[in-house]
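Sample 3 of the quickstart, ligand magnesium ion:
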Amino acid sequence: MSAADWTAVDDYLVGALQPDDPALAQALADSDAAGLPKIAVAPNQGKLLMLLAQSVGARRILEIGTLGGYSTIWLARALPADGRLVSLEYEAKHAEVARKNIARAGFGAQVEVRVGRGVDLLAGVEGPIDFSFIDADKASNPDYFQGALKLSRPGSLIVVDNVVRQGAALNPNGDANVQGIRRMFELVAAEPRVSATAVQTVGSKGWDGFCLIRVER
Ligand code: SAH
Ligand code: DHB
Ligand code: MG
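Result:
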């Protein structure tokens, strides 16, 4: 099986289960037009995030790494009418594109995109947070995990994107991103308050994986 096969299967699965989605299609189109990198989660991954957030009854969601707001819109769809989402983004241009996409999708009042370094902005996020999605610079994953944990309550879920990186996570001498992923796994494993697993994924985003961390107490 090749990457082309994984993409063909993803196209089939999304076509079978997910109707055309104008708000999300427009968010991707505007992100492309603004020159943002094409690294948003896939449509089936976005819906997985929404379903997970719904399953924990999330009313307060934290995202680290907004890009053009594609995953943000999926997560905002999980919220009840009085729910709130805060998304942290380093690049002012990404945040500007995201805010427009989020507003067009109908979540301008519920979602706040804050601009700055994720590690700095975390200090100002108000908890408790029911669901966190960590998807920014992977080198900072240890700090993001610890920050999200601090904001969590028992039953909260923390999901981390890109923890496999085409197998690069295997390399103990990998780059700063790989070091961040591996150090985060060590912190998660040593943290008695959480229960965690990681799963590999293939699809239109290539070969990667998610880490799922449930806060138990
Ligand atoms: N969650 C998005 C994709 C995020 S891509 C989606 O799936 O739709 C990663 C994002 O993290 C980029 O927009 C990048 O600018 C941002 N980023 C990189 N370093 C960061 C930092 N130190 N703090 C916050 N965001 C950062
Ligand atoms: C990259 C970042 C992501 O969040 C992602 O899902 C895929 C790729 C990257 O920085 O290359
Ligand atoms: Mg990602």
